[in-house]
Amino acid sequence: MKTLTAQMSSNGSAWRLYVVLYGETEWPTFRWDRTAAVPTVAERRRALAALGYEVAPGAVWSWTEDSQVPQDDSTAVVLIAAVTVCERDGGAA
User: Fold this and answer.
1) Which of 1, 16, 30, 93 has the smallest number of Cβ neighbours within 10 A?
2) What distance in Å separates the CA atoms of residue 60 and residue 75, rounded to the nearest whole number?
3) Given CA atoms 46, 20, 33, 14 in this order, what sign does their dihedral have?
């Protein structure tokens, strides 16, 4: 089973989820219309399904934070979540 990494991030704007496709210029992306509450695990699962992917068996979401301006921790925090995914059977990916 080929696996990829999906990431979800927000820098205070709308949350977006994308599947990292190395060597490609465009990645499958889903964007929520809200900026507040973090999308639930169920919402993330539905977004991945809409993109043709699912969380890989046994994978769990991990979280990290970064600064909006690299190497400047006085700037706004960017939250980043990541999980291992695979294509759904018969998926659109």
Assistant:
1) 1
2) 28
3) positive
Alpha-carbon torsion angle 77, 59, 34, 13, nearest 10? 30
pLDDT in tens, 13-71: 899 999 999 999 999 999 998 877 899 999 999 999 999 999 999 999 999 998 888 88
Give the integer Cα–Cα distance in Å for 48 and 81.
13
DSSP strand E in 1-93: where? Answer: 4-10, 16-20, 29-31, 53-55, 62-69, 72-87
Can you tell me the distance from the alpha carbon of 84 to that of 62, in angstroms, rounded to the nearest whole number? 10
